[in-house]
Specification:
single chain; Peroxisomal Thiolase, Chain A, domain 1
Length: 393
Amino acid sequence: MTDMWQRDVCAIVGVGESDYSKDSGTSVTALAAAASRAALADAGLDPADVDGVIRNDMDLVSCAALADAIGARNLTYYGEAGPGGSGPAAMVAQAVGAIMSGQASTVVVFRSLNGRSGNRFGLSSEPATTTGGGESMTEFFGPYGLLSPGQFFALLAQEYMYKTGTTSEQLGHIALAARRHANNNPRAQMYARKMTLDDYLDSRMLSSPLRLFDYCLETDGAAAVVVTSTARARDLRQTPAVIRAAAMASGPRPQPGQMYPVLMRDNPLDMPSRYCAETLYRRAGLGPKEVDSAQLYDCFTITALLQVEDYGFCDRGEAGEFAAAGELEIGGSIPFNTSGGHMSEGYIHGMNHIVEGVRQIRGTSSNQVPGASVSLVTSAPPPSTSALILVAA
């Protein structure tokens, strides 16, 4: 089948965020509106310019509610993508499709959640509370004690570490890289909290082999971006981050549900991110050697570790040594999650990764990679996934 992707036709021209906190004290609609207005102001656009809105399929804010809250006059396109953290890059891809097909010209893409004070995705859940309508399939795993995302990713970590000999210390270097980057980012929740390897190893075990600091930060907050055509972007306020390529993938054996059924695959470590990477690099006409920074979805350290390999930054089974050698930090071969990511900035289901990917292209990151012109951004690797490559204009 011929791939019809067209490079560089759209760009991200505005980014915005709310504060990231443990208790926002406000509604998810107010958070979404604040981030979206900030993104529009960043681009030099008026809310009346917005004719498209795209939300995450787990967001509690509807497209109509966001349009009303910011003062958009008339939506000619609205949509959503997911599931959950797999969605943000796919949401941007959907915005590109809407613009290329003439259905919209100025699209706000957002994610908003009170993920700490409200609906906490990381908590254990009883099967009876998760079977209605969402087809999460947790009812088939709950009776055996699999009740939380941390347990699921711990099983992946156990298998990976058993097969490769990766150590807890090596896994810890992924968390350390994210924390060091957050320590330079005033917006990050862990801005003032330094961490050593001993701190990491001394943190309590939550689901072996994953410790407290292997986990992301459940967060209240919102992030948004504005997408428009590259031709129009040249006349706007900010340096555009051009969307060179976007891709989505399920892998060759998709399952229903959210994440737990991935464990039933022949090889649970064979993530959709591997297949997404192949499509993404082909569409971009670039490879991992051209990528200057990588904003990798990091709900857990093992999630980022698997993607380091799937996106071609090191060979299979070598990501632990790669991280321990400092290759994920500024000055390393592929600086990752330069805002602090989900583990040390905030967990906004991958939308804050897109914001940071844009900042790297603009040259305005708090941990700027010198001369960065190619930025990789990924969304959650299971059960399906999506990713972007952003480039300088």
